[in-house]
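Field: sequence (string)
Field: structure_tokens (string)

Example rows 1 and 2, in order.
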Amino acid sequence: MSIFKALRKFWKKIYVDPRRHAFIRKWGLPMMVKFDEIMREQGIPYTLVYGTLLGAVREKGFIKHDNDIDVAVWADSNVSALEAALTKTGFKLCRRITVDNGEFGKEETYKYNHVYIDIFYFYHNHDDIYNGTVFFNQPGCRNWSESIRKHGGLKVVQLMLPLRKETEYVPFEDIQLPITTSALDFVEARYGENWRIPDPTFVYPKLGDVNYVERPDKIGIIKRF
């Protein structure tokens, strides 16, 4: 490991991550109340996913090491006015990653009062199984910047996860937030059968043993705002 990389990792551990943890505890819930209002107004169904969903079903709130919020939107929803509605209310679009111009995969990151929220778009596969995407460094590359410079974008991994469109509101800290009715199937498919036991070694986007496939025929294109 280079000295620069070691210093960056140390700085992230002692400053960046604790700062983001503090922000999400202070402003995370007010931000989700506002986000939920916008999604209801726009008529766009969504659900908590990944670490935020895991927290909802296991902790009834944020998991200990979470420092952002993860939600999913079904890609066939009418999301054409979503960016305008969010930015009008104070959400700042920071980054968008697309695969095949968003026809195969899309992920957006917004910031609101120092808290980041990732919106993951899921695409229908079959029955109640939907495809999502996660992104990695390209083989032989140390980071995203090198992946973009050498390959034009990021390595794409396709997830296949149960994600019913039906949702229900459940307690999350002292508010109510929506989760898919296949929430338990989702977290087990993503994190394994021992998902009820906290894994201190987990670092997103660590993959499990099943429910994903690498897609060397695809590339993730990043646009920063």
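Row 2 begins here:
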Amino acid sequence: MLVMDRENALKTISLARFLVTTGGATVPRFSTWQLTHPIPYAEGLSESTCYALFRALGFDETARQSFFRTRALQLESKPLIAFDSTTVSTWSEHPAEARYDYNKAGDGLQTIKFTTIYAAETRQPIAFGKQPGDLRDVTGLLVLLRQMETLGLRSPQIVTDNGYWSDANVMEMCKAHLDFITLAKPTTSWMKEAVLDVLGSIRDPEHLGDENRGVYVATTTIKHTFSYQRKYVSTKEGLKAGDTEEFTRALYLHVCHDPVQKEQIDISFIERLLDLKRDLEKGIPLDEMKPKAAKDAQKFFVLEYDKNGRLERIEWNKEACQNACRFYGTFVIVASHKKDGFAALRKYRRRERIEEFLKLDKEEMDGDRPRVWDADTLMGRMLVQFVALCYADFLRVRICQVRKMLEARLDDPDLTTAEWKLDRDLLL
């Protein structure tokens, strides 16, 4: 499995199984757990041995990269790759990547960013990387692209969520001539009008596929000009560092519209405004409301006051309400290469399922706050967690497959009563 000495490999697998079966218990609990569970490393592991293993793995760059490359070589040609990043808090000041920046946990600690590459078709993690906690998405994206090249993934299809949606990220992917699919915000200024044009006829029957759960999909092409500042001098082209350059790319917008979701959001939106209108009619002044409620009151209603400052009349601002609702139930999948809209939606939905797995490393692999004090030990610890993540993802996919098989067997008329009850009980 790992290109390392057999003893360290068995220790790694033992710890990975511990993390999977305990839902991410801390390393000190391993000493007790191994007494009641058989592990590949029969000699057993003390807490100090575990941390010595982390340090040894952290130093063994060859083993780590060989493991990643072996997993990458198992993929078919032009694989669909999903990647994402997450930050973890650390108490240690020693890792060079530990930086103070926005921290989702809100604990005031420094953070380190970890990126994970997934095979979207098999839902298996392929590799991970460690980056500074304050690194911008676009910079981390470039580092990740270079990592994929070293793994032999030179022409993958890449799918990302809207967390990576920005002009800078899309520009870098276009400059690298990547085949990508990403979720975009329909309110993005340079695509908003194109999306609205498509929405005008998106409810036509031909835009409703057979297997897309009631979602209409229509595709349009848009050309967008990106601009950036050069980092280096080009004497050949007479350009200086800092000069602005531009290039234009054709992008394909797959506009997806879910009428059921739109109706639900519309109803919720109107009910919220009706509650706000009742508060205004009761005489509650704007300065006593929460800031968002006061802002919405001024935006979605026309308020008229008498000379004494009392609210005299409330009218709906219909145009503001319509503008707020026009993109409800709509999302846009942007592709760099021409693709069938329904195929692009299917590929993006594969990435959505991976979102569940991306939470595993933090929530179920004891990965939210690594309790190690130097960069090498941290990398080794993350490798053990990554192996555990590989186990967990494989088991989840396999369990789903077994459930589908059992559900199909329930309709088999040749099953005995005992077999049918056993299959039903396994599904519960």
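free_text_note (row 2): The chain has a mean pLDDT of 83.
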